[in-house]
Amino acid sequence: MTDYPPELTASEEARLTEVAKDWALAHGLTVRPPPAVIAAEADPRGILATAVPVTLFPSPFPGICFEQGIAVQKAYNELYASISQDEEFLARMVNEIGDSDEFITDLWKIHLRVKEEGYVQHKSLGLFRSDYMVHQDASGSRPQIKQVEFNTIASSFGGLSSQTSQLHKSAARIPHPQLSCTKKSRYLSLTEYPLIENAIPLDTLNLPPNNSAAGLASGIKEAFISYGASTTGHSKCVIFLVQDGERNVFDQKHLEYSLQSSTDPIIPVFRLPFSQIQEHTSLANGARRQLLYTPPHLPTRTFEVAVIYMRSGYGPGDYPDARAWEGRYHLERSAAIKCPSILTQIAGTKKVQQVLATPTIPSNSSILGQYLPSGSSSSASALASTFTNIYPLDTSEAGLRARAIATDPELCKGYVLKPQREGGGNNIYRGAIPPFLKSVPDAHWTSYILMELITPPPVRNTILRNGKLEQGGVICELGIYGTCLWDQQAKTISHNEQVGYLLRTKGDQSEEGGVAAGFGCMDSCTLV
Ligand code: ADP
Ligand code: MG
Ligand code: MG
């Protein structure tokens, strides 16, 4: 596809901009506008939405890599469900991260408090997203995907991603002027005439299906059913635990609407800000500790919470004071199925990813094998083939080598330094690593990991952001979603699915690709 995406004339650009922008607004491919763009006085009631940045065309992505990501997702789900069950291993990870990371230490303290009194809920739900970039070495060998990170909490964009695939696939169809409107199959897409002169026939694009919104919602539904009947006499519900002032709210809404479309069972969904946990929830009297929720708009109604789906609580910003930590403790000790539990949140730290991926003897496949009871050694090696080298900054042999790299102004250029944080904007790149480490006391270095940079082959595309087009080289990051429901005590997995994908794309000059952070944009794959 050398002439892909096609060159556009100025008037074609204007037309495509209009089509994509209107489609995005009409289909909830939206976020709330940033406060800097819309002054509070212009939107006092929060009625405005703005189109999410998107690529005009689906980005070419090696089919072999896409299939590789899809193929390993269930093994990844199983791996992280198993790691979540290995409390001893996670305790070691928290210990290795060290006291300097108060956030991780405080999370662990909550787990220990609940363990002390005994967990009343052993089922645990994971809505995961494994992120990758394409790696191809200079020899021009077969491209492979390499894992950027594995998310176990608040894995976002599943709601917007299936919409983006729709935008690129079919929903921008415009009837061909020479065809009768009844011949729906002959409708033409965004990428075809009559929108642009150098049309790309739809059948030359290979657009994989993407059920991310419905798929993630069905994971929540599984947990809702698996919770069993209410034992308090109140109807069951699902709570989306959210951040105040969340801009990416429509992403979450697509999941919510998908859940609400279930008629058997009916699934009431409520949004609860993290800061209001204690205000609106309580634990039932008695040993079972059912979580009860009274919606502020229905003060006479109470629901028994079956599932807490967390779109908050993943970073220190949500825990400004002791009361916020007590809120998390209150949820953790309740009978609601947590997505995720604290153990699963800790399993998703970059430290765990590093321990799995650090080249060691004996090889990591043996560590992996131990966590994949139902898998064969081939699934362990399939997972290991997605790892890139990641090192600790401790005093082990690998750690000492990493320290030498991270403090060398030349060697550090192929690396990224990561703390145990989520949500983008936390990493230190390349030449900034040595001066950064100089500013950090030596005893705190163990809370970081050092990772080789993945350098994907160049791709071109056009990004539509805030109504303006940005053309040029882009870098794509593929996320594969997975849902998994397991029992911590029985050590059984009752549900394990791969559910759709995310393609996020950023300009090739940007280190971080967060869509919410304003650098990245939504995209979809055309497989090549
Ligand atoms: P977070 O949990 O904050 O999303 P990530 O590990 O995903 O942290 O890093 C954020 C971004 O940094 C990624 O989306 C990617 O753009 C970039 N990045 C992270 N690790 C690498 C890597 N090894 N190679 C290239 N880019 C990376
Ligand atoms: Mg993350
Ligand atoms: Mg990430």
From TrEMBL:
Pathway: Sulfur metabolism; glutathione biosynthesis; glutathione from L-cysteine and L-glutamate: step 2/2
Reaction equation(s) it catalyzes: gamma-L-glutamyl-L-cysteine + glycine + ATP = glutathione + ADP + phosphate + H(+)
Keyword Nucleus (UniProt): no
Keyword field contains ATP-binding: yes
Molecular function GO labels: ATP binding; glutathione binding; glutathione synthase activity; magnesium ion binding
Catalytic class of the enzyme: ligase
Chain sites annotated for binding Mg(2+): E422
SUPFAM superfamilies per the UniProt record, alphabetical: Glutathione synthetase ATP-binding domain-like, PreATP-grasp domain
Binding-site residues for ATP, renumbered to this chain: 350, 418-427, 429, 451-454, 477, 506, 512
Cofactor: Mg(2+)
The protein's Enzyme Commission number: 6.3.2.3
Domain Glutathione synthase substrate-binding residues, every copy: 237-347
Cofactor binding notes: Binds 1 Mg(2+) ion per subunit.
Residues annotated as binding substrate: Q252, R504
Pfam family, one: GSH_synthase
Entry GO terms, CC: cytosol
Alphabetic keyword roster: ATP-binding, Glutathione biosynthesis, Ligase, Magnesium, Metal-binding, Nucleotide-binding
Oligomer status and interactors: Homodimer.
Protein family (similarity comment): Belongs to the eukaryotic GSH synthase family.
Name the UniProt record assigns to this protein: Glutathione synthetase
Higher taxonomy: Eukaryota, Fungi, Dikarya, Ascomycota, Pezizomycotina
